[in-house]
Amino acid sequence: MTRTDFLALAGRLCLTAHMSKLSGYAGPSARSNPNPYLWHQYTGTRFVITAQTLLDLEYLIAYADPASSWARTPAAALYNGLHAPDADFNLLLQRLRYPISRASNPETLKSGLRTCLTDLADEIAGDLLSLFDTYTTEILPAHAELFSSAFATVDKDLRPREAELFDAVIETLHLRMPFPVEMFFVGHGTVFGAFTSQPSLSVIDVSRNAGLNLIETILHESVHGVERLNANNQSAYALLRRELSSRGLQRDTEAAWHALIFWNSASIIKQKIDPAYVDYGETFGVYDRAFKTQVVALRVVWNQYLQGDLSLSKAISLYVDKLT
Ligand SMILES: [Zn+2]
Predict the structure, then answer these.
(1) pLDDT for the residue numbered 61
(2) How far is ligand 1, taken at its centre, from the CA of residue 219, in Å?
(3) Using the 8-state DSSP alphabet, how is residue 179 labeled?
(4) Is residue 78 scored above 50 in pLDDT?
(5) Helices in the chain by DSSP H: which ranges?
(6) How far is the CA of 177 from the centre of ligand 1 (A)?
(7) How far apart are CA 213 and CA 158, in angstroms?
(8) Most-buried pick from 11, 56, 140, 305 (CB within 10 A)?
(9) What is the 258 CA–ligand 1 centroid distance (Å)?
(10) 55: closest CA among 115, 140, 119, 121?
(11) What mean pLDDT, rounded, does the chain reach?
């Protein structure tokens, strides 16, 4: 069994655990919505944004404090395995290897694995269930407030100009981006303010993103979601990759590209919503901490490009000039 096979299996396993053990839960939104896990959803023309009680819970487990007992539960191990591959992943793998190593033929392998997975699913469901009580009484009410103000921002600042903002992202970066783009909000303070795992699961922590910073992050994560899709075409991402690799600088790609996403997303907010907007990268010190050189270059080159004074390929090559 490969790692990918196992992860696919683990995902299904968890889903099974959720469905069988947690389906009794009737949260605040269950009365009005047939999906008991759905907290709130925004369905626009370009973006679908969901806050789901279960994802919020899972995210909490995934980033459980390593010192807490939660960090050592099978559920935490599974999610750490999924989201931070070096964590307790081996522990779980070990438990699946046992029936594999004992199996004398395909039938005993099948039944051994089935027993092992059922036990594991029960344990995971048990973990989730015991956290669920604390979660619904203590954590969720606080998250609910964060969610309502996040969705109010989405309604006020994203809804009226959604297509315009989305199109600006696509046009400035020459991206191929199928819509609607799907995103999830979580309410837990996390290591990152947001992340997108390939292929395209975008999670935004609304305790760390508010007001126009939240809208910038939505644009930012939508770009991460289509990186693979745009790795080899005429997009800004592909051009940048090629330019850096032709100069033997492949390892600078991630920082150069990431700085560009930050800068471009913030520029769109300034251009389309508020000229006095202060970039997320500036507010949270990301520019200073991680992208000093890149930002000096982008301030000149990318602004010229956005004003229409440079072609995309010229802008990319000048950007790379200034990085070296
Ligand atoms: Zn990013």
Answers:
(1) 63
(2) 10
(3) S
(4) yes
(5) 3-22, 53-62, 74-83, 89-102, 106-134, 140-153, 162-173, 211-224, 236-246, 253-272, 280-283, 286-290, 292-306, 312-323
(6) 16
(7) 12
(8) 56
(9) 6
(10) 140
(11) 82
Interval 113-159: pLDDT, tens: 778 777 777 777 677 666 666 666 777 788 888 999 999 999 999 99
Cα 108 to ligand 1 centre (Å): 46
Q: Residue 269 above 90 pLDDT? A: yes
- State in Å: Cα 96 to ligand 1 middle: 34
Ligand 1 centre to CA of 173 (Å) is 15
Compute, in angstroms, the gap from residue 252 CA to the centroid of ligand 1: 15
For ligand 1, the distance from its centroid to the CA atom of residue 217, given in whole angstroms, is: 8
Query: In the numeric block, which tokens belong to residue 177?
Result: 């981006």
Q: In what order do the strands lie in the sheet with 181-186?
A: 38-43, 47-52, 181-186, 201-205, 194-197
pTM, two decimals, is: 0.77
**pLDDT classification of 198: cutoffs 50, 70, 90:** low
**Cα–Cα distances in Å, from 197 out to 114, 183, 224, 252?**
29, 11, 8, 20
